[in-house]
Amino acid sequence: MLLEVNQLTKVYPSIDGPIEVLRGIDLQVAAGETLALTGESGSGKSTLLHLVGGLDTADGGRITLAGHDILDMDDRSRAELRRTDVGVIFQQFNLIPSLDVSANIAFQARLAGSYEASRLQTLAASLGLDAHLNKFPEALSGGQQQRVAIARTLLARPKLILADEPTGNLDEETADEVLEQMLGLVAETGAAMMVVTHSEKVASRMQRRVRLNKGRLL
Amino acid sequence: MIGKAIVLALFLWPASVFAQGFAGLGSEAEEFTQPHQGYQFVFPQDHGAHPDFRIEWWYLTANLKAADGTQYGAQWTLFRSALAPETKEGWQDPQVWFAHAAITTPDRHFVTERFARGGIGQAGVTANPFNAWIDEWQMSGAFDGQMAVSATGPDFGYAFDMTASGPMIFHGDAGFSAKSADGQASYYYSQPFFDVTGLLQLPNGDIPVSGQAWLDREWSSQPLSDNQTGWDWFSLSFDTGDKLMGFRLRQSDGDTFNSATWISPSGQTTSYKDGAFSADPISVADVKGKNIPVSWHVRLPAKGVDVTVEAQNNDSWMDVSLPYWEGPVGIQGSHTGQGYLEMTGYE
Amino acid sequence: MIRVGFSAILSHWRRNLLQLFSLVFGLALATALWSGVQAINAEARASYDAAATTLGEGQYDQVLPRSGNTISQDQYIALRRAGWQVTPVLDDALGPIRRQVRLLGIDPLTAPAGLMPVGQGEGRDIVRVLTTRFVFVNPNTADLLPEDPALQVIIDDAVAPGVAITDIGVAQQLLGKPAQINRLIVANTQPINIPNLDKIAPELFVKSAIGGQDVQRLTDSFHLNLTAFGLLSFAVGIFIVQGVIGLAFEQRRSLVRTLRALGMPLRVLIWLFVGELIAFAFVAGALGVVMGYLIAAVLLPDVAATLRGLYGADVVGALQLRPVWWVSGFAIAFGGTAIAAGGALWKIARMPILASARPRAWAVESNKNAALLALAALALLVTALVLAIWGRGLLVGFVLLGCLLTGAALALPYFLLGVVSLGRRFARGPISEWFWADTRQQVPGLSLALMALLLATAANVGVSTMVSSFRETFVGFLDQRLAPELFVSVSSDEQAKTLDAYLSEHAREVLPVVSIDLQVADVPTALFGVRVESTYEENWRFLRAQGDVWSLVQSGNAAIINEQLARRADLWPGDMVQILPDLTLPIAAVVADYGNPLGQVVINEAQFLQRFPDQRAQRFGVRTDDPEGLSQRLMDDLSIEAANIVNQEQIKAFSLNVFERTFKVTGALNVLTLAVAAFAILMSLLTLSAMRIPQLAPAWALGMTRRELGQLELVRAVVLAALTTILALPLGLLLAWVLLTVVNVEAFGWELPMYLFPALYVRLGVFALVAAAVAAMIPARRLAYTPPGTLLKVFANDR
Predict the structure, then answer these.
(1) What is the pTM of this model?
(2) What interface predicted TM-score (ipTM) does this complex get?
(3) d(CA C52, CA A201)
(4) Diameter of chain C by CA atoms?
């Protein structure tokens, strides 16, 4: 199993007392599997994604990713994990504003030590980015920015891709296009993918879907 | 000038000096000599300084006339003021000297002053031969013969040759001049008979003049009593050849103490005690913001004198450290003539 | 409406307390440095004025002897009897070295008003002055006076420090100089017809009042340096304020739009902003003056010691809060605010009512101005160059300084961008590439703070170079002049003869010091007769020399003159100098003689004594290997008092101590200016840190730890500071060069050699880096401890 989540809990402090965002989640994702994570706003799906990606800390339970217990890891190892095993695509602000498109695409792969220049060209071409490689993120449209984020993730060859509403900020047509390109490329690399989405259309394109409600999996 | 303080402290208000720290020096042995009746003057020694007395002066006033008839007045005064009744060599000498010189023209009055400490040679008086000096100012010669006088200031100067045409005269009781009912007194004599020729140096040029001068010599240790606020002093030369010296000491209670000496053309004197002589202001003028009586009604009934004395120049203000009024006057009435008037203590 | 509008614009500050703090505190710091330095200057000047008044220097002409420094009392009387209105002064040091008081004896009867504090107040009447042995002194000087129960010490603040005034008779006794006078003060009004001085006393001459301001001129050089420092410090502060005000106005654009949309006229709005700024400037100005006072109060004792030691000019070591500082402090605070806010107000005034209300990133926006600024910088630097080559005059010197500094400051962002781009080119690896790219992006946002750092560091380098060059020059001079181990002085020729003979036997070398004051080429000059010994040959360094200087002097065939005489009379080695009517010698060398306004001529002792047989040396420099032992023997064998034997180590130590104090003052100002610059950096970084989170979050998400990010932030600040410092070094040296060779020469007519002090620059550079690092530490730490949740919010849907 690529990913195993056991009895995961997460509590946020708030003015009205602690809120249990995740209440004992159990989830398994196999290598190469694609999974849609759906649920109401505030159901905890983004939190789950962040925990799985080593971006945040949990209050209980266990997450095993590619054989590592990531909740036991220190900051440094978790950062290492994010570089090599995980790729994240957020809804917005994915890119580093001071780097141009090609540097942005290459960034994670280079951090992970798996950079191949020729593959960057291929990916950029297949995502229609070859004309924009020397531009800075602020000069790109929203769809283009998301494509850059996808290219960056795929170039790093992570075992697990985590995407949080990757097409949520895009118009419908662009969203469809971006989704198709992403699915195609993910399939090519053989990575597993977990997508948080509101969109029925996006969810329907995944092999499996899981629904969260008030911190529990249904 | 710092000298202002010394004049204030020493000259006009001796009482205050005794009150202010000078008392520390006033041990018995250091007390100043006081004038006494029946003193026998010894000349030429008495023309010189008397350091055991507190104050002393050589006081010359002259009524002068130029060839064109313009009248001028001139003054040369050397004061000695002792901080202690002794002399010492150098800067330690407690004798302080200061001097005033002035020329009065019909419309201007030139004044200057000097200060010096005794003991270093900057100022002093020797009796034989007679020589009184401070800086370049000088008065030398003989009281009964020839004398030379000179002084300069920033904007004027003069030099006179004087010849005595009569004897020295003594005021009060043979030179013992009472200054108050309480017994304050001074030694006081004069040479009122100098004929003068000389040169006035004024901004518009030199002016040869001639006329008459009157030299007063006076010394004492405490000339004024506590309640006396100032004096009005007249030296009048009548066209008859007679002369009159009269003064009036004003008291804080409004009363006055006066005294006079009548001098005949040959030098015979008659002294008048308090009450015989009177001088009353007729009108006052605003001089440097002060009300100064510049016109006087002067009487000495015993000699039939009933005259009006008027300043030749109202602005004869001696703007020195301790200012006073001193200038030439004209005389009208029972007698005519000219003279000098000194007024002090007008606030 | 006005009240509502005012509370609306003020509400911004309540939510941005940090901005408010940095605005007020930055302005206050700027004002404080300026007014602190002004305070020190003003206080010192006020002290000289007191000194000049007391000593009669500068106000009155003086009669001086053509040779020697004594006028006999008879000459004085002769002058008075000729009508000259002069007053005698006896003026000499009283007491042992280091506890010396300048005793000034005057004659209160003839002195012009104001020279002596007589007749003012209790116990000062002339009678007391003439009948007691009084001494007037400043409270600070009182305890330096020798114990003497017969002296009546009267404390008076109006007396110049280090001076005791007394009656000339008392002075003659205390100094053991009966019937002696040093100089005569000439009253401003003289009687008509006074004869020419030549006719009465040809051995005396009149020195006009204008020539008497040597002390003033020397110390002015110190003041000028301090003023330059104050102005630079102020400029540093203004950079902070400019940044803060600019940001605050940018952030309130939407507020301006809303208020205008609600019907508030633009003009009213502008006036509200102006009112707000006036209020801030007022508070900051008041705070600044008080802080300036504190700075000055802490530094003044050292400054006083410095000036006293360097120039013999005294400053009272106490400070008065003078009204003029309030005025100048507020003026500078208001002026500074106006400069800083002018541009921002102009923008608001020109903003169309429907303009985008989104606060544009002020950092990013100013990027496009970089080219324009670079052009302005170039123009300023070219102007500076032109002025340096062809300009003349003090004002030009200052304009040159201004152009140079402003030009360099404006060029800084361009320089930084260039270097950073270069860095990126050589970067290997994603993190270093990202680091340089990101640094480049930070430059515009930090440029104002970095300009402040540039100016602060340049000012420090410049002023330190200047002060150290002073030190270098003077220490060399001290070594030269204080080579003998002991100085022994006696008070009679008899003793002198005995001592000379004794020393010839017991000491390695005896160097009698004999001199006389005279006029050479119309320059007041001291003529020295020296016994040529190896000490001179070993220690004297010449500015210019010709031939075997000391043998020429030894054989009576040449003279040495000092730089002052050389420059004033334009006499150089090879020229002939007429020293006395019957003595004309070629000049063999010119020697540096700092801090001495007078000319100096050195000939051999025999030549000197032949012409001035009465001038016997009463001071002797002594070379010995056993200074302690010899001192003891001199006391035992010749009954010379300990006070008359001076161990030169002590003098040297004392003189060096003076420089240490100068350094302390400079050092303190260095630390202060750097603190201000660090404050600017801190404020900029804190302001930028909110903007930084979205820029940094992706890098974190992609696998960098927060700790790494924090460290890189710190490194970035240090790198930028280091680049700024690298630019500041040559700028500071240029500054020193301008101050030493342009401004100093224009102001004072002499040039001080400029020395370089690499170790000092390294230290200053390290200080600058430490200041920047300390400033960057706080935001970096904050970043390293940012909760992941905060970073994740950047990507959140509902952001």
Answers:
(1) 0.56
(2) 0.91
(3) 95
(4) 106
